[in-house]
């Protein structure tokens, strides 16, 4: 018994997200930063939390839980922010909860933020999954559709309405329901046969292979700017011989008459070049380019673009300062090469997930640092943000360490024909707007991926992907665009429009399971077919096999560490033939084991990691490490200290 979504569970409560997003995109989304003119107050820690377990999930709205303290509406529990809520309690119903949950936290705002009349106070949520509505002191301030990307609201006007109180109560309702037009899509299925299922039984169906973790996944914070402020900065870089070119554009809000100073500062703190214009080209003599890890002895070189604004209105003067890290580099694609700074770049990297024990998709610095250390140990120079945008702090790490990123939208699991309808396309285009707006200035981001493995055989797929790719190129004409495919149908649908062909395949796993001997021939055919038809560079964007750590067998059988190793070995021998021709990269699926929906093909999650979910190596990790360091020696220019990376 399949039925469309019943009223309150879903997003019916969420009015016209598209209209709202359009307004939001008139403004920038610069990463919050402290400076001489800006303060940041993180609101991470314990929040009061209440899941709306009423059958319709609608009680919180009916009884206006946002109007009073959440604890006054009923029992609340402590939930950490950032974190998914699913795995932090012993309650199986909360782990698998679908619908609205309510978060609340009180914060004391410094009195001067309100009293000086010159300060803008912004409430920002870095990511909440999936649909969020935010109230401050019971007044709705914003709502946002989509996880993985930030949203904000100016709240100083509201705070000034009652300047006697500096306490503000922030309430955030978050709904993880996925329907046919969300990204990723999903559907709710009600089981009505009362001889089989209890009253009210329903499930959330999805077509993607990771657990639909929910909650406030990244920081919530308050930050200030002066009323006249730097709203956005866009930087595009190039170079000619030894001169770097930084094309920039600064957009300003809150003032018309301003003086501006833009200064490019090198790593040693020296001013390199400056200008007084809101847009222009800065010329950098003896430029130090931004290079990927293992391609240069000094990877990830960053300048800093300091933007200093002075403005005045009848009564006040304002100064705002924002410093944007800038890496000067170019990205180009030829018919068989991927060029960074005009040199061939070979992706030897990983696919990741934001996923770990207990936290789920919650941002966690120890995990981020461990993962970067593991990637560098492995000799990985790149990763793809499968299957959604990652925290911006992770991209900042990539900028600094020279790890190259393929930045992917949450367009995963688009398999139902109704998910190609206009409502879906419109939202997908908006998500690309938000993604490019947030990540456009990161030198580590070298390509956009608009989707993963859509049902390319469906008639509307061609139009849908043509629109998406064209739109993304308009948003950012400087980076190549791709979508990830596992299907030959995609050849006629998307491939004519992408710059790089990204292919996923699982020979001897999903096809011909157990038959390692088919890998080389099938992989060879795959590459020849794609290149033969399109003459575009190809990245093997996924390949791999599950291995339960500690399972062994020789001769190898599926799910053992030996089998995983041999799958890799056979893929690698074909990569080695083709990378001299037109294959420009290989990304293992997956960096680490990760949690999925329960199902008969998943034993406590997906085990294709070369590291366990706890980040310990399986045998395959050592195979890959040896290979990646060899590739780095052949294709890059290793810094001296990394020639002999680790004694083990
Ligand atoms: C894929 C998907 C990825 C899955 C993987 C697998 O093609 O893109 O999300 O986890 O295969 O292991 O099945």
Explain briefly what this protein structure is:
Residues 41-226 form the Glycosyl hydrolases family 2 sugar binding domain. With 648 residues, the protein is of the alpha+beta class.
Question: How are the SSEs placed, and which strands pair?
Answer:
Layout: H1 17-24, E1 40-42, E2 45-51, H2 59-62, H3 70-73, E3 77-81, H4 92-95, E4 100-108, H5 111-115, E5 119-125, E6 128-129, E7 131-136, E8 139-145, E9 151-154, H6 156-161, E10 167-175, E11 186-190, E12 202-206, E13 215-216, E14 220-226, E15 229-240, E16 243-253, E17 258-265, E18 271-275, E19 279-284, E20 303-312, E21 317-326, E22 331-333, E23 338-340, E24 343-344, E25 347-351, H7 365-378, E26 382-384, H8 392-401, E27 404-408, H9 422-439, E28 445-452, H10 461-475, E29 481-485, H11 490-493, E30 501-504, H12 519-534, E31 538-542, H13 561-578, E32 583-588, H14 619-635
Parallel strand pairs: 25-26, 25-32, 26-27, 27-28, 28-29, 29-30, 30-31, 31-32
Antiparallel strand pairs: 1-14, 2-3, 2-4, 4-10, 5-9, 5-14, 6-13, 7-8, 7-10, 11-12, 15-16, 16-19, 17-18, 17-20, 20-21, 22-23, 23-24
Helix pairs in contact: 9-10, 12-13, 13-14
Bound molecules: (2S,3S,4S,5R)-3,4,5-trihydroxy-6-oxo-oxane-2-carboxylic acid.
Describe this structure in words.
This is Beta-glucuronidase. It is found in: Lysosome. Homotetramer. The protein is α+β, with helices and mostly antiparallel strands and 648 residues long. 22% of the residues lie in helices and 29% in strands. The chain contains 14 helices and 32 strands. An eight-stranded parallel β-barrel has the order 25-26-27-28-29-30-31-32, surrounded by five helices. A six-stranded antiparallel β-sheet has the order 3-2-4-10-7-8. The longest helix has 18 residues, at 422-439. The protein is globular and about 75 Å long. The N and C termini lie far apart (57 Å). The model is unreliable at 1-24 (pLDDT under 50). The site of (2S,3S,4S,5R)-3,4,5-trihydroxy-6-oxo-oxane-2-carboxylic acid has 10 residues, from loops.
């Amino acid at each position: 018994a399949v039925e469309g979504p019943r009223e309150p569970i879903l997003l019916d409560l969420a009015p016209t997200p598209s209209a709202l997003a359009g307004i939001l995109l008139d403004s920038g989304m610069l990463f919050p930063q402290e400076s001489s003119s800006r303060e940041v107050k993180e609101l991470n820690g314990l929040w009061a939390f209440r899941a709306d377990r009423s059958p319709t999930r609608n009680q919180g709205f009916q009884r206006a839980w946002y109007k009073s303290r959440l604890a006054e509406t009923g029992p609340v529990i402590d939930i950490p922010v950032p974190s998914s809520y699913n795995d932090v309690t012993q309650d199986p119903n909360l782990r698998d909860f679908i619908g609205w949950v309510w978060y609340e936290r009180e914060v004391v705002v410094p009195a001067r933020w309100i009293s000086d009349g010159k300060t803008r106070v912004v409430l920002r949520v870095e990511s909440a999954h999936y649909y969020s509505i935010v109230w401050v002191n019971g007044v709705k301030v914003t709502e946002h559709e989509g996880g993985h990307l930030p949203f904000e609201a100016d709240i100083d006007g509201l705070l000034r309405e009652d300047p006697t109180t500096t306490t503000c109560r922030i309430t955030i309702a978050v709904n993880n329901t996925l329907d046919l037009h969300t990204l990723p899509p999903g559907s709710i299925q009600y089981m009505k046969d009362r001889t089989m299922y209890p009253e009210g039984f329903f499930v959330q169906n999805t077509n993607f292979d990771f657990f639909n973790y929910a909650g406030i996944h990244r920081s919530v914070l308050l930050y200030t700017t002066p009323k006249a402020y730097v709203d956005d900065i866009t930087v595009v870089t190039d170079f000619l011989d030894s001169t770097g070119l930084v094309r920039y554009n600064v957009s300003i809000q809150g003032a018309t008459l301003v003086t501006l100073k833009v200064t490019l500062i090198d790593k040693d703190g020296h001013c390199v070049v400056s200008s007084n214009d809101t847009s222009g080209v800065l010329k950098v003599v003896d430029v130090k380019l931004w290079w990927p890890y293992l391609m240069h002895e000094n990877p990830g070189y960053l300048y800093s673009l300091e933007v200093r604004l002075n403005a005045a209105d009848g009564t006040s003067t304002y100064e705002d300062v924002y410093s944007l890290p800038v890496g000067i580099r170019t990205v180009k694609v030829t018919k068989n090469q991927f060029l960074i700074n005009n040199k061939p770049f070979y992706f030897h990297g990983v696919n990741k997930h934001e996923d770990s024990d207990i936290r789920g998709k919650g941002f966690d610095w120890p995990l981020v640092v461990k993962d970067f250390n593991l990637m560098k140990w492995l000799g990985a120079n790149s990763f793809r943000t499968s299957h959604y945008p990652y925290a911006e702090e992770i991209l900042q790490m990539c900028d600094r360490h020279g790890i190259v990123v393929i930045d992917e939208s949450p367009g995963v699991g688009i398999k139902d024909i109704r998910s190609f309808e206009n409502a879906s396309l419109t939202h997908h285009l908006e998500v690309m707007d938000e993604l490019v707006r947030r990540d456009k200035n990161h030198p580590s981001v070298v390509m956009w991926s608009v989707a993963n493995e859509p049902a390319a055989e469906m008639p509307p797929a061609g139009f849908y992907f043509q629109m998406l790719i064209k739109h993304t190129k308009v948003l950012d004409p400087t980076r190549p665009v791709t979508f990830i495919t596992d299907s030959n149908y995609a050849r006629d649908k998307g491939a004519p429009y992408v710059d790089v062909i990204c292919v996923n395949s699982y020979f001897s796993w999903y096809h011909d399971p157990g038959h390692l001997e088919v890998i080389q021939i099938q992989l060879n055919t795959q590459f020849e077919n794609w290149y033969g038809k399109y003459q575009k560079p190809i990245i093997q964007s996924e390949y791999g096999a599950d291995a339960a750590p500690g399972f062994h067998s020789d001769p190898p059988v599926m799910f053992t560490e030996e089998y995983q190793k041999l799958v890799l070995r056979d893929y690698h021998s074909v990569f080695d033939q083709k990378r001299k021709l037109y294959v420009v990269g290989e990304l293992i699926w997956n960096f680490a084991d990760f949690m999925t929906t329960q199902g008969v093909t998943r034993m406590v999650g997906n085990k294709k990691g070369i590291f366990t979910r706890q980040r310990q190596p399986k045998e395959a990790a050592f195979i890959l490490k040896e290979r990646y360091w060899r590739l780095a020696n052949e294709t890059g220019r290793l810094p001296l200290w990394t020639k002999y990376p680790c004694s083990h």
